Amino acid sequence: MITRYFESVDFAWPWVMSLLVIIPLLGWWYWKKHSSLAGTLLVSTTQSISTNNRGWKTRLAHFPFVLRLLTLACVIMALARPQTRFDEEQVSGEGVDIIICIDVSGSMLAQDFTPNRLEAAKEVAARFVDTRKTDRIGVVIFSGESFTLCPLTTDKSVIKTQLYGIQSGLLEDGTAIGSGLATSADRLRVSKAKSKVVILLTDGENNGGQIPPVTAKEIAKKIGIKVYTIGVGTEGYAPIPVQASDGSIVMQREKVNIDEKLLTQIANETGGKYFRAQDNEGLEQVYAEIDKLEKSTIEVTAIRRYTERFLPLVIAALFFLMLEWVLRFTVLKKFP
């Protein structure tokens, strides 16, 4: 317990501990004093003093002085102000409001990514969420229609839970890029953040939805939203699982058709940037690039609190002092 106490404390005034040198000096003085007294002891009889006469009182004769030294040591250490330290960091600043807009159409199950495009997109987006400490992030999914899966929040665990729960087939199939972007823009419409961002990820061409992509782009521009677009898919053909007539799942190679012209237009006209990711590593690099482009203003304040821990030493000093007093006036009391 004593060792644990001294391991957990720092001393505010460590220079006071130099006074502990008094302890061995007093011990040396006490030893010299009693050694000289023993050397001048006169015996009035020729009989030798039996060692049997040295009872327990004789053995305890020096114990009160030891207790006094312990009391002094505790007082000195208490005066050095032992403290425990608690360090805390407060993170504050101005974050970015971000909507992650993910295509969940059937083609996102293509296996040119590991294990497929959708799972890779979810995993990389979740890691991106972890890097954005002060940002509010929301999630929108789209295929033939769009849906807000998670509104803007700073709760990273909620965001990631929603991301990992995304499955293809949740919505009507298709690729409604305009609807996805419009829903994302609507979520950012009342945002007070100075920087509002949509990260729109798709692997196809717009072929559905009630809002044309150009209209959604104009809505985003009017609100002041920066759109980063990501086209996912390898060049040429990619293996996609499809359901055969007998209900079994077979792999079928389908051509990768990404409307890069549209995605580039949306990004450029809103102040964002278009990226093409052809594998997992490429997608990681895309999100890393977006992370660099959209920096939050973060202030980290270090707070250090101290708690005084002198009380155990004061209690110990009082204990040793009281024990000495009790011994001197009871069992070690000298009678005239």
TrEMBL record:
Superkingdom to which the source organism belongs: Bacteria
CDD domains, per this entry?
vWA_BatA_type
Enumerate the UniProt keywords alphabetically. Answer: Cell membrane, Membrane, Transmembrane, Transmembrane helix
Instruction: List where the protein spans the membrane.
Output: 12-31, 60-80, 310-331
Record keywords: Cell membrane included?
yes
- Domain VWFA, by residue range, is 97-290
This protein is called: Aerotolerance regulator BatA
Record the organism.
Answer: Flavihumibacter solisilvae
